[in-house]
Amino acid sequence: MRWIVAVLLVIVLAVAALWGFGIVSLGPKEVPVPDLFAVLEDGDANAVASALEEGANLNVRNSAGLTPFMAAVSANAPNSVLDALVAAGAAVNEQAANGATALTLAAEHGGPSQLIYLLNAGADPTLGNADGQTAIDLAAANRQLVGTGVESRLNEFRTLTFVADWPSAYLVPVEGATISSRRNHLPGAPRAYRNGVHEGFDFYNGTVSVNIGYGTPINAVADGVVIRADHGYQDPSMADYDAMITEAARSLDTPPEILDALRGRQVWIRHAGGFVSRYAHLAAVAEVAQEGAVVRQGDIIGTTGNSGTLEAAQGTQDDPHPHVEVWNEAGFLGSGLEPEEIWDLAAQVFGRAALPPYHD
Ligand SMILES: [Zn+2]
């Protein structure tokens, strides 16, 4: 009898010891957290997204000191994989011990599409590695990038100051257009008739280097997902328009629902890095621009109109113009800035070619 008790005691102590060292588990079985580096090897965006949902850690480092995001860039993962990581909160500008960033790694070995993705997700082109080389320097030695548009966009940062939290490889929304230098066409301009402030860039004929007319195509400024597409929009009557302006004029600011109505028919696109572009006063929305649809940089998402304006309420096609806004989490591009400062920031976002020398 005594030896049975002794054997049982030994078994209990042995199990307790194994449990203490974590070799056996007596509680509910724990689900192992996926290893993101292993999941990344397949280059499958859906697998990466589910690993992140299961709690995979974005902030670990591999033996080379890279975060999963840097490792994905380094392994030339498709942009959809990078997007899954960014959407889950991967820090785009994280640096390895030697100063390398996702962007310097891409500039060294990647192609144009990867570079454009990173710049538009908010990557800082002026950060350097331990040798003092930035993505600008590295791109100049990468045969995949030399002579491409993205190499010249990077080169602009030799003299342009990078403003954090904004993208830097967007296209202008009308092919070949420049940004109007009229104060009234820029974000931040007062709008006395509705007691408010202008939140976007206006592209009126005669001020943007290309002809703008009713029906002029408008393109997506960057890759993204359509989050609003007013296919079924109807212009307000003159009476409704008057009522909105009267209401706005007696408010301290333009009420949000009135401001929204005054932008007329719209498309909104969400981009990597949490940026959103809004296209207003459209005459029509393109078929490809359906809510939830993925659109590519340069895709035509609608045509120029005057919806939401007085001229539309009057039943005319007068004064058509694209009105385009870019937002980050803090506000609209250009908010709180002087025209010259908006000019420099717009040069970063849309490229120098879109910004002739500023004049008021
Ligand atoms: Zn406008």
Give start-end ranges of low-pLDDT stretches. none
- Tell me about the biggest sheet? 7 strands, antiparallel
Oligomer: single chain
Topology-level CATH name of the largest domain = Glucose Permease (Domain IIA)
Bound molecules: zinc ion
- Mean pLDDT score: 93
**Overall morphology:** elongated
**Count of DSSP-assigned helices:** 13
Which class of the largest domain in CATH terms?
A: Mainly Beta
Total domains: 2
Description:
The chain is α+β, with helices and mostly antiparallel strands. The protein has 2 domains: 36-158, Ankyrin repeat-containing domain (Serine Threonine Protein Phosphatase 5, Tetratricopeptide repeat), CATH 1.25.40.20; 183-354, Glucose Permease (Domain IIA). It is built from 13 helices and 12 strands. The strands form 3 sheets. Strands 3, 5, 6, 7, 9, 11 and 12 form a 7-stranded antiparallel sheet that branches. Strands 4-10-8 form a 3-stranded antiparallel sheet, with no helix packed on it. A hairpin with a 5-residue loop joins strand 6 and strand 7 (276-280). Helix 3 (45-53) runs parallel beside helix 5 (79-87) and helix 4 packs antiparallel against helix 5 (79-87). The N and C termini lie far apart (102 Å). Bound molecules: zinc ion. Residues 198, 200, 202, 323 line the site of zinc ion.
